[in-house]
Write a structure and sequence with these properties.
Layout (H helix, E strand, L loop, with lengths): L6 E6 L2 E6 L9 H16 L5 E6 L22 H7 L1 H10 L4 E5 L2 E3 L1 H8 L2 E5 L3 E3 L13 H9 L1 H10 L3 E2 H7 L4 E3 L4 H13 L3 H15 L3 H15 L3 H11 L10
Parallel strand pairs: 2-3, 3-4, 4-6, 5-7, 6-9
Antiparallel strand pairs: 1-2, 7-8
Length: 261
C-alpha cells in the first residue's frame, strides 16, 4: 500500500485499517481526497485486502470539506466541478468496492464527512460520536449523497429535521434512527470495530461483494444521478448571498445571519 501524507494505513488479518489524519479535525482537502481514492483503488485490486476499516485520528471522524481550502481565487469556486472531481468519485468508489467497508466513528462526522461515513457498509459509533448535517450552516445544500442516504436510513422527516435545524445527532439517537449499527464505549470502539472487520475479512467476501452489488442496484440504483443532481443544486446554493454570509461567519467564528437569498 502506498505511503500517504494525510492517511495512516495498517493491514492486519486481511483488514486494512485507514485513519483520516489531517489535524485538527480531519477536514478534507484535495490531497486527502485523492489519497482516499487511491486507497480504494489499490484495495480493489489487492486480494490480501478483504475488508476496510475507516476511522479518524484524534477527536474527530471528519469535519467534512476544509472550507478554507475552497477560499482560493477570491473564494469563487464551481461547486459542481469540485464535487465531480472529489466527493462524487469518493462515494461511487466506496459503493463500487466489492469488499466490506466498516466505519468506526470516533467523533463528529460533519457534512462530507457524514456522507463518507454513510457510504460505508456498516457503522460503529463511540459514545462521544455525533452526526451533523453541516451544509446548511454554510448556506449550502446536500452533497456527498446525503440527500439519498439520510432519508434511506432514517426516513424523510428525520432527514429533513437534521438538514433544516443542523442540530447535532448523538450516537444513541443515531442508533435509534438507524444511522449506525452499534454504539459502544469510546475505549471499546476500535477493538470492537477491528473484531467485526476481521470477522468479515474471514468470511465469503466474494459473496459479500455480490450482495453489495445487489444492495446498490435495489436501493442505490440512482446514486450516480443523485450525486450529479446534488452537484447542480450545490452550484446554485454556492452562488447565494446566504452562502457568502455563512462562509464569512464560519471563517470569522461567529453565528451567520441568513436572509433567504
Amino acid at each position: 500500500m502506498t505511503d500517504f501524507e494525510f492517511l495512516q494505513t495498517e493491514r492486519t488479518e486481511g483488514v486494512l485499517r485507514v485513519s483520516l489524519n489531517r489535524p485538527k479535525a480531519n477536514a478534507f482537502n484535495t490531497a486527502m481526497i485523492d489519497e482516499w481514492l487511491q486507497v480504494l483503488k489499490e484495495s480493489a485490486r489487492e486480494p490480501e485486502v478483504r475488508c476496510l476499516l475507516l476511522t479518524g485520528s484524534g477527536r474527530f471522524f471528519s469535519a467534512g470539506q476544509d472550507v478554507t481550502a475552497l477560499g482560493q481565487n477570491g473564494g469563487q469556486v464551481s461547486f459542481r466541478a469540485h464535487l465531480q472531481r472529489t466527493y462524487n468519485r469518493v462515494i461511487l468508489r466506496m459503493r463500487e468496492l466489492e469488499k466490506p467497508i466498516v466505519a468506526a466513528i470516533n467523533g463528529p462526522a460533519v457534512g462530507a464527512g457524514l456522507g463518507v461515513a454513510l457510504a460505508a457498509d456498516l457503522r460503529l459509533a463511540g459514545q462521544s460520536a455525533s452526526f451533523i448535517y453541516g451544509f446548511t450552516g454554510l448556506g449550502l445544500t446536500a452533497d456527498s449523497a446525503t440527500s439519498l442516504t439520510l432519508p434511506l436510513l432514517m426516513g424523510l422527516g428525520r432527514a429533513a429535521e437534521m438538514a433544516f435545524t443542523n442540530h447535532p445527532v448523538s450516537a444513541e439517537q443515531a442508533l435509534a434512527w438507524g444511522l449506525v449499527n452499534r454504539v459502544v464505549p469510546d475505549d471499546r470502539l476500535m477493538p470492537e470495530a477491528q473484531a467485526l472487520a476481521a470477522e468479515l475479512a474471514a468470511g465469503p467476501t466474494r459473496a459479500f461483494g455480490l450482495g453489495k452489488r445487489a444492495f446498490n442496484r435495489n436501493f442505490l440504483g440512482d446514486l450516480e444521478a443523485a450525486l450529479e443532481y446534488e452537484a447542480q443544486l450545490q452550484e446554485i446554493a454556492g452562488r447565494t448571498a446566504d452562502h457568502r454570509a455563512g462562509r464569512a461567519a464560519f471563517l470569522e467564528k461567529r453565528q451567520p445571519e441568513f436572509h433567504g437569498r
